[in-house]
Structures are given as structure tokens and as C-alpha cells.
């Protein structure tokens, strides 16, 4: 039998010990041969050291990266490992048991299609599935649209990427900046001719945003990224104004997405998600109007 490729799982971490422990527990019980993968947690400046937590799990190492940003933490993990395949996830994710097995199969072409980068699915869950908040219902639909990211925006969400080390080295490291590091890296990869494939069977679970404040922070951050990208092009204010007007129109397509979503099953959930959709949408329009007339924050940490 062919020896399976060695996989390095790399997890950036910042002040998230409880969820990191759950993530490591799931990774300890993968269907992939345990001797053929290692786990590296890269702490990005947490208030409390993680050495004691990591020590509970054999085959897991802790590294430290002083430069803030998931991109820097992931790069540090890549530099300090040497496996054939890199598997990126986040400390708040819960990898499914076949996460590594299915990802390696897809990278090797055994799943029926040949890809260079795997963009897996990220499934959202509520703190209490019997009584989700309005924010959690909205996030179950729109939190991570992984298929759309891969097929229309040409990137994979950083919380669930698998790639061979050879391909990663050709593309280069993640870059922290005015754009999300996973978006920039994915577009750089596709610009070089590499193929990203969406893989629903390569799945991690992720907690949904629990409060409206969390949704609004995401809306501000998304607007900041979009503004920075558009500001690099000509006729910025005209283009940004047109984009703002388009966002101000009723979100009919997004509403249909809510109504058709299989993630919302219980009575009244779709109505609550629709109400939240309109609230978040027009909050974002207000942010975009502000960015049209005033300079936005200079860094993502200020958003």
C-alpha cells in the first residue's frame, strides 16, 4: 500500500483557549492515520500562554508569532514544519472526523477532479440549536458562503484550506494588509494558474456570530475591505457611490437565499433571518455612506 502523504495542520490562535481545546480534541480523532499528521498551534500574542493546554495533546506543538494577523501566524507554522500537505483551520473550528482524509483524497485526484487547492465547507452552528438568536440564524445563511467564494470570488476561506507545500511555496506566503489575507492569497494563486476546488465533504464546523454587535462589526470590516480595494482603481468616488446605491436597493436575491436555505427549518426562523438581513444591510449602507465622505480607519484593528 502507498504511504499516505504527511500533513501539517496549522492553527492560528489568539485568546481562544476553550474553543482551541475542542478543536484539538476533534483533530486527535481524525480518520486519517495519526502517525501521518502533526498539529501546530501558532499563538499570536494571547494574554495567557497555551503551553499547558497544548501539552495535553500528543503530537501537538505550540509556536509564537509576534506580528499580529492570521496570515503571519499561518506563515510561521509553514516555516516551522516540513510535511507534504498543509491544512489550515482556525482555533474556533470543529473539524469533522473525515476532514483530513477527504481533503487529501481531493488533492491527490482520488475524488474525481484534479485541483491544486481545496476550499472546504464551513458549517455554522448556534450555541443552543433549539433557541438560536436572530444573529445566529442570519449567520447560518451568510456567515461563510464557501462555494461562492471558490467559484465566483476565486479564493478559499482561511479557516478551511488544504494545499500541497510545493504549491504554497510557489504562490508565496499570506500577506497582512488592507485586504483579507485569504482573499488576496487565493486571487494570487488563481492568477498564477492554480485551480481551487470547492469540497463540501472537507468540512469544519464553526460557531455562528451570536449577537447583532458581532454582525455589525463584520459589516464594517467587509465595507472597509471593499473600500480599500475600490480605492486602488480610477474614479473611486463615482464607483463607490454607485456601489452604495446598489446596496441600498431591497436585497431581493439575498431574501430568496434566506427563504430557500436548508439551514433554517423551525417555524419562524426564516422571518427572523429576513428581519436581520434588512437590519444588517442598511447598517452597512450607512457605513458605506460614511466611507464615501470621510477616510476610513487605517487598519483592520481599528474597525
Provide structural commentary.
There is one protein chain. The longest helix has 25 residues, at about 270-295. The protein contains twelve helices and eight strands. It has about 300 residues and is an alpha/beta fold. Strands 3-2-1-4-7-6-8-5 form an eight-stranded mixed β-sheet, sandwiched between helices. Helices cover about 45% and strands about 15% of the residues.
Q: What's the assembly state of these chains?
A: single chain
Biggest sheet layout? 8 strands, mixed
Globally, the shape reads: globular
Tally of alpha and pi helices = 12
The overall pLDDT average reads 94
In percent terms, what proportion of residues is strand?
A: 15-25%
From the N-terminal CA to the C-terminal CA, the straight-line distance is: 52 Å
In the sheet with the most strands, the strands line up as 3-2-1-4-7-6-8-5
Number of strands: 8
Low-pLDDT regions? none
Order of helices and strands: EHEHEHEEHEHHEHHEHHHH
Structural class: alpha/beta
Helix fraction?
40-55%
CA-atom Rg in angstroms? 20 Å
List keywords for this structure.
eight-stranded mixed β-sheet; single chain; 303 residues; alpha/beta; 12 helices
What is the structure about, briefly put?
This protein is α/β, with parallel strands linked by helices and 303 residues long.
Amino acid at each position: 500500500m502507498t504511504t499516505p502523504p504527511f500533513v501539517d495542520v496549522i492553527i492560528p490562535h489568539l485568546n481562544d483557549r476553550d474553543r482551541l481545546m475542542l478543536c484539538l480534541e476533534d483533530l486527535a480523532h481524525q480518520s486519517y492515520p495519526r502517525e501521518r499528521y502533526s498539529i501546530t498551534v501558532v499563538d499570536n500574542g494571547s494574554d495567557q500562554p497555551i503551553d499547558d493546554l497544548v501539552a495535553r495533546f500528543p503530537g501537538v506543538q505550540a509556536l509564537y508569532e509576534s506580528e499580529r494577523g492570521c496570515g503571519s501566524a499561518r506563515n510561521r507554522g509553514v516555516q516551522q514544519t516540513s510535511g507534504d500537505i498543509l491544512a489550515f483551520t482556525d482555533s474556533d473550528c470543529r473539524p469533522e472526523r473525515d476532514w483530513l482524509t477527504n481533503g487529501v483524497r481531493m488533492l491527490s485526484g482520488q475524488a474525481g477532479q484534479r485541483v491544486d487547492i481545496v476550499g472546504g465547507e464551513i458549517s455554522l452552528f448556534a450555541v443552543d440549536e433549539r433557541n438560536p438568536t436572530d444573529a445566529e440564524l442570519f449567520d447560518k445563511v451568510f456567515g461563510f458562503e464557501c462555494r461562492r467564494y471558490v467559484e465566483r470570488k476565486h479564493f478559499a476561506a482561511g479557516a478551511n484550506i488544504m494545499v500541497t507545500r510545493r504549491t504554497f511555496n510557489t504562490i508565496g506566503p499570506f500577506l497582512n494588509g488592507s485586504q483579507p489575507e485569504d482573499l488576496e492569497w487565493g486571487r494570487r494563486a488563481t492568477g498564477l494558474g492554480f485551480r481551487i476546488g470547492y469540497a463540501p465533504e472537507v468540512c469544519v464546523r464553526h460557531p455562528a456570530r451570536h449577537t447583532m454587535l458581532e454582525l455589525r462589526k463584520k459589516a464594517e470590516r467587509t465595507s472597509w475591505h471593499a473600500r480599500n480595494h475600490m480605492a486602488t482603481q480610477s474614479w473611486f468616488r463615482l464607483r463607490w457611490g454607485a456601489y452604495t446605491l446598489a446596496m441600498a436597493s431591497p436585497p431581493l436575491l439575498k431574501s430568496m437565499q434566506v427563504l430557500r436555505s436548508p439551514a433554517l427549518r423551525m417555524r419562524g426562523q426564516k422571518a427572523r433571518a429576513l428581519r436581520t438581513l434588512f437590519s444588517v444591510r442598511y447598517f452597512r449602507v450607512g457605513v458605506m455612506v460614511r466611507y464615501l465622505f470621510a477616510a476610513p480607519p487605517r487598519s483592520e484593528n481599528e474597525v
